[in-house]
Amino acid sequence: LAFAAAIPLLLLSGWVATLMAQQQRDLVRKAAVASATRVAERVASDIAAQLSVLNAQAASASLDRPDLAEFYAEAERLKRAHPLWETVELSNPAGVQVVNLLRSLDAELGPTADRKSFDAVVRTGRPVVGGIGPVGRISGKRLVALRVPVHRDGAIRYVLSVGLATNAVSSILRDAGAPEGWVGTIVDDEGNTIARTRAEAEELGHPANPALRAAIKHAPQGFYTGPALE
């Protein structure tokens, strides 16, 4: 009888412990979402600030005439002030580069490397953040393009671009304040890794794991279960 009388108390204790554990998990999840959101906002803010610099340069009087020598000098000054920039590129609406800081002004440059992001700017007339592009003929690297249109007389005269090296994007991610011990990853819209806080060299440019790609397609934020490199 004493044992039977204790059963409701044991059940109640078990239920309270389960409820407290669930509440603790919920608190941890909410804190994780808040941290991830804060990091994402800081990364987005950094990228937006760099796009603002590009938009200001797109309004330069040197592109009114145009005076490409003057523009080249201005772009060099900007690049020195932004160490994460691999290069600054100016292309005509057909996608042919007319300026690339990795070459002299009189060099034959050829087409821009990442046509997907370039065509999006020409089609929409709006700034675009590209994914990880193909290996550039001039840079010899896979860069992430930030692109803005250069409007004159109601039309797109040029597309102004900055090429960020993939390790530059990882640097932005690391500086965004992720909690210690976290592994942070940024993927582009095709599911390829463009930044990672760990194992950078092994993962950049490769597809993220299938569980992560499926989770991104499923919802704008949340949790998923799947394997990680670590």
Concise overview:
45% of the residues lie in helices and 21% in strands. It contains 6 helices and 7 strands, in the order H-H-E-E-H-E-E-E-H-E-E-H-H.
Describe this structure as you would to a colleague.
With 230 residues, this protein is an alpha+beta fold. Helices cover 45% and strands 21% of the residues. It is built from six helices and seven strands, in the order H-H-E-E-H-E-E-E-H-E-E-H-H. It has helices at 2-58, 68-81, 115-124, 166-174, 200-203, 210-218, and strands spanning 85-91, 97-100, 128-135, 142-152, 155-165, 185-187, 193-196. The strands form two sheets. The chain has a five-stranded antiparallel sheet with strand order 2-1-5-4-3, sandwiched between helices. A hairpin with a 2-residue loop joins strand 4 and strand 5. The longest helix has 57 residues, at 2-58. The model has no long low-confidence stretch (mean pLDDT 88).
Characteristics of this structure?
230 residues, alpha+beta, two-stranded antiparallel sheet, 6 helices, 7 strands, 45% helix, elongated
